[in-house]
Amino acid sequence: MPQADGPALRVLSYNVRGLRNDLTAMVSLIRSLAPDVVVAQEAPQRFRWRTRCADLAHRIGLVYAGGGLPSLGNLLLVSLRVVVHETWYVQFPLTPGRHMRGAALSRCSVAGTPFVVAGSHLATDPTERPAQAAILAKVLSGLTEPIVLAADVNDTAGSTAWRTLADGRVDAAAAGGREPAPTCPVPLPRERLDVIFVDPRIEVRDCRVVDSPEARRASDHFPIMAELRLPLPAPPALSPADQGHVAVD
After folding, report:
1. Helix, strand, or coil here: 187?
2. Above 70 in pLDDT, residue 2?
3. For the whole model, what pTM was predicted?
4. Cα-based angle 24, 26, 32 (whole degrees, multiple of 5)
């Protein structure tokens, strides 16, 4: 059961389509949702990517945590509530003739409560996706903190890549018996390619696809908004020596 006694965390996952649509609508939409963490896929990663990522963060009122070119278009932005302790990247092997893909990860904390946020965008090629998902799952398996993974899987629930990333995690959109909604394409949504997976220790209080007039102008994917509550870290175990000196009132 989730340990619902830690701080709340609002996480937004959004394929921003290279900021090629209505940027003003996108900024207004994200600001209105007031997320603590934004995980963006298809963020700027080429010409002037640093400036464009920083400008997006500034316009939304968030802070750049990592991503862009080093993570092949995955971007992590956070509010001032979130302390970023470390950011690192995973780059998947390049298949000749295909786009190189990767992931961005940040070790963070809110009110002293640790967590890791990870973002990725898997390949459109069905022969590449399972191996990419396996690489990312292996990286995540070596972490001890509660994990929030936001991804554009480019595949649907039940696929090999989806099952690999879902293994041992909770699909936030389906938590509590919710019926997941499709995330794309915006004009006539019929597929759920975007997902937020969370550690079972994290409580999912709400998760929804954000469909609004602004969302329909901002990208070809709808964003996903998850309301989470993190588990408090376990107290450190007492050593045998300390156990013999526990104060008693």
Report:
1. coil
2. no
3. 0.93
4. 105
